[in-house]
Write a structure and sequence with these properties.
With 162 residues, the chain is of the alpha+beta class.
Length: 162
Amino acid sequence: MISIVRRTLRHCLTLALVLSLGACALFQGRDPVNISVIGIDPLPGQDLEMRMAIKLRVQNPNETPIEFNGVALNLEVNGQPLAAGVSDQRGSIGRFAEEVLVVPVSITAFSMLRQAVGLSRVQNLDGMPYVLRGKLASGAFGTMRFTDEGRLDLPKPAGGTW
């Protein structure tokens, strides 16, 4: 009787191991999506807030399409939160394809004040760091998070001075 239980347990463990290895093949890693901010347009604001529409180019470098049902963004400039926004857009980004998404964001008066105080300590606005964090929502296991960071390089006038 004990040998039957052991044999059954061993078969169950072997089956579980084989199934878990097969499941690993289903959840192969994806390359991260490439996100670029390609435009910022003003939107009507209310009272003490500013609103902007951030245009993002989203590139899918994977062999499978990305289905999404929402977008969220947070923008930090100079290490301080500046803007946040969400959109309930739905769509699909095909395999090895790209789409342009437009996400409205809000900038509160307090965020603007925090940025103004931070800018008063800066000698030069050129090279100020920014970080854009966001996600493309697609259910519990399909959400894709992304980060884009860099430095704001202001255009130089033709003569080299302002």
